Amino acid sequence: MRTILGGLSACLAAGPGLAQDAAFDVEAEAQICAGCHGEAGMPVDETTPIIWGQEYFYIYTQLRDYAAARREHEVMTGIAAEYDRDQAKQLAEYYAAKDWPAIQAATEEGDARLANAGITGGQCSACHGKWEGDSRIPRAAGQQPAYLEQTMKDFKNEVRMNAPDKISTMKQLDDATIEALARYLASL
Predict the structure, then answer these.
(1) What is the pTM of this model?
(2) Binding-site residues, please?
(3) 81 touches 143 (CB < 8 A)
(4) Which residues are noted in the entry as heme c 1-binding (predicted)?
(5) How far apart (Å, rounded) are the C-alpha atoms in residues 162 and 33?
(6) Domains located in the chain, CATH noted
């Protein structure tokens, strides 16, 4: 009995983070995530983003933004609120280490022209470069087109508020350009 009480006292003295970290199983958590984000990296729904192979810091930041309600989603806000900082980092590391899955995305006639006009006008390449992500910048190439479209429209309509510079950029683009840009980026 004395040993059990001594061990319990040591855990309590170490703080709540120790108990949480010992219980966090990133593989088990990833199985929960797979319910929407897919078993092999292909999301179940077209409006759900691919997170396999996404940039580490971007995933981590989005989890923290959901938890702090800087970004809202009916499912992700509650889930992310349950993760402490270390758990969010573990999940971000787990997904960033995965290979990006290939999707089938089609463009429509004129998409490249409209998309390039939007990219030039919004100076998107200044940050996004070749669209494959870079540390804090998310990969957009090969991302779900419906997710990309919704994300850009959410910025434009000030639904998504966790990247103010994107709001002003997306407000410059009409919906037809955003739709073409989403299809174009998905096809890269």
Answers:
(1) 0.85
(2) 33, 36-37, 76, 124, 127-128
(3) no
(4) 33, 36-37, 76
(5) 22
(6) 17-96 (1.10.760.10), 111-187 (1.10.760.10)
Report the SS3 class of residue 82: coil
Q: Which residue's entry shows tokens 């994107």?
A: 166
Going residue by residue through the chain (188 aa), what tens digit of pLDDT does each one get?
333 333 333 333 333 443 345 689 999 999 999 999 999 999 999 999 999 999 999 999 999 999 999 999 999 999 999 999 999 999 999 999 999 999 999 999 999 999 999 999 888 888 898 899 987 899 999 999 999 999 999 999 999 999 999 999 999 999 999 999 999 999 99
If DSSP states are collapsed to H, E and C, what string results for 12-79?
A: HHHCHHHHHHHHCCHHHHHHHHHHHHCCCCCCCCCCCCCCCCCCHHHHHHHHHHHHCCCCCCCCHHHH
